[in-house]
Task: structure prediction
Amino acid sequence: MARYGMALDYKNCINCKACEVACKEENGVELGAEKHRIWVGGNNPEGQWPFLDIASAAFMPSQCQHCEDAPCQEVCPTNATYYDENHVVRVDSDKCILCSYCMNACPYDARYVDDRTMTVDKCTFCSDTRLARGETTTACQNTCPTKVRTFGDLDDPNSEISELLRTREHFSLKSHLGTNPKLFYLT
Amino acid sequence: MKVGPLNIPIKEDFSLKSILDFEKTPLNIFLAVSVLTMLAMFAIGVITYLIHGHHAYGVTREHPWGLLIAVYIFFVVSSTGFCIVGSLGDVFGFKRFEMISKRAIFGSIVTIMAGFAVIAFEIGHPVRMMIYNVLTPGLTSAIWWMGTLYGLYLTFMIVEFYFLLNDDMKRAKIFGLTGLLVGLAAHSNLGGVFGFLNARTISNGVYYPTYFILTAFITGIYLSFIVMGFRYKLNFDDKVKDLLEGLAKIQGLLIAILFFFMTWKLLTDMYGGMPNRADVAHHMLHTAPFWAEVIFAMLIPFLVILKDFGKSPKLMFFASLIGMVGIFFMRYNLVHDTQVKPLQMMKLTEYQLPPEWVEYFPSATEIMISLGGLGLCILLYYVGTKAFNLDATH
Ligand code: SF4
Ligand code: SF4
Result:
C-alpha cells in the first residue's frame, strides 16, 4: 500500500528522450508517434531575436499525472479505469469498451488507443513490469541521465520524493481543475 | 387489420409484396434507390471497420470522437424530439396533436434504433459494454446514465406504441409519460457527457444538458412536418393543417428561445474571459459549419414561420428538410468544437510548432456508416408504415 507520485526536476531535462524510449521498451508500448505514454514537451523560446527569453525555452517531460481526483476515472462507464492499491490510475483492458470518453475528459492528453487490444492505454508507473518484479524505480526514472525524475511513495515521510517536496518549491499542471495531480514539477 | 403475434394489429395486406409495392413515381424510385445505396454503403462501411478498426476512421488521439458520435447524437435527439411531439397528444391530452402521436412514437423507435446501429460501430466493444454496464456500473459517468436510460426509454416507447396500436389509451398514457421522463433524463445526460468535461471549457457547464432538450423539441417538430408531408403527399386536409399550424407556432417560439440561448452562450463565451473558451468561440464563428447550423437549422425555418405565423405547411415541409440539415451540423459542431482546442501539453513534433487547432475530417468509412444509419432509419420507418396503421383511429 503506497501512494505513488513523481517529482520532476524539469529544468535539468536536456531533451534526450531516453525516457520515451525506455518506456516503450520496458512496457511494450506500441510503435508510432501517436502511441506514447510519456513525452518530453518543449517550449519554443519566447520573444524576438536578439531579445530571446532563454528561460522560457525549458523542456518539460510529462505523462499521466495520476490524479487523486481523476476525471478519466469519474467518466468511465464500466469502471475500467480505476485506482489501484497504490493510488495509481490504471485501465483494466478486459472492461474497457473503448468509448473514448476518458480520452476526452483527461485534461493532460495522457491517454491513447492501444490497437492490439482495442482499449485505452496510459502510463502505469511501470506497475505491470518493474514494480511487479519488485523494483522500486520506473523505467523513465532509471534511464534519465540528468536525474530529472524521482519516483516514490508520498505517504512515506522518509522517501526521497517526500524529502524533495518538503525542501523544494514545486507546482503541478492545470491544478486549477481540481484534479490533484501526483506529478510535481520542482522549481 | 389482422392480429399478428403478441396481439399486435398488423395491416391486412402486409407482406414482402406490399413493401415492394409503391407508386412508381420518379421521386419514389429515386428515394428507393437512395435508400438501397445507403444500405449498401452501411455494409461496406461496417466491413471496412471490422477489418481495419478505428484506423478506418479519421479519429485521432487528440480528436477521439468523430462523425459517428455526431450522427448518434443526431438520431437520439430526433428520437427524443419525436417522443416529445408524440406526447403532446397522448400524454398531455392536447386533442389537436393527437393525430400524430402514433406516428411520432413509431418515429422515435426507428430513429433511436438507427442511432444504436451507428454507435455500435464507434464503441470498440459494444457487447462488453452491455456486460460491464451491469456488472461494474460507473455511476459517476454520464455515458453510463445516458446509455442505460436510453435502453430503458426504448423499452417504454415500444410498450407505449404497442398500447397505441391496440387503442389502449390509458396504458399508453402511463408508459408514454414514463418513457418521456426517462427519455428527457437520458437526453439531458447526453448533454451532460459534454457538460461534465472540465478539460474542455467550451462545453463545460449546464448549457448542453438544457439546450439538448430544447433542440430535441425543435428537431421533433421538423421531423413531424417531414413525416406528415410524406404521409399526405403535401395535400393536407383541414385537420392536418390545423395540427401543422399549431406545431409551426410552437416551433417559432422554440427557435426564438434557441436564438436567445445561443446568443448568450456566444456572448459569455467570447467576452467572459475564460481561458480556452473565448478563443474557441471566436474560432467557431469563422467556420462554415457554424453558419450552416445557424442559417439552416434556425434562420430559414424561422423566417418561413414568421411569414404568416405558420400557415404555410407546404413551405414548412421544405423548410423542415433544410432544418434537419442544419440540425446535423448542429450536432457535428458540438462534437468537433468540444475537441478543437489542443490540450496544450507542450507536445512538439520535432521542429514544428504545436498546432493551433486540432484538425479532423471524417473518413469515407465514417461517412458511409452514417449515411447507412439514415438509410436504415428510412427503411424501418417505411416498413412500419406498411405494417402498422400509424394514423389516429379515434
Ligand atoms: S492525467 Fe489524465 S489519465 Fe492520468 S489520472 Fe489524470 S485524468 Fe486520468
Ligand atoms: S475508453 Fe475504456 S477506460 Fe476510457 S472511459 Fe471508456 S471504458 Fe473507460
About this structure: Residues A 64-67, 70-72, 89, 106, 108, 110-111, 122, 179 surround iron/sulfur cluster (ligand 1) (CB under 6 Å).
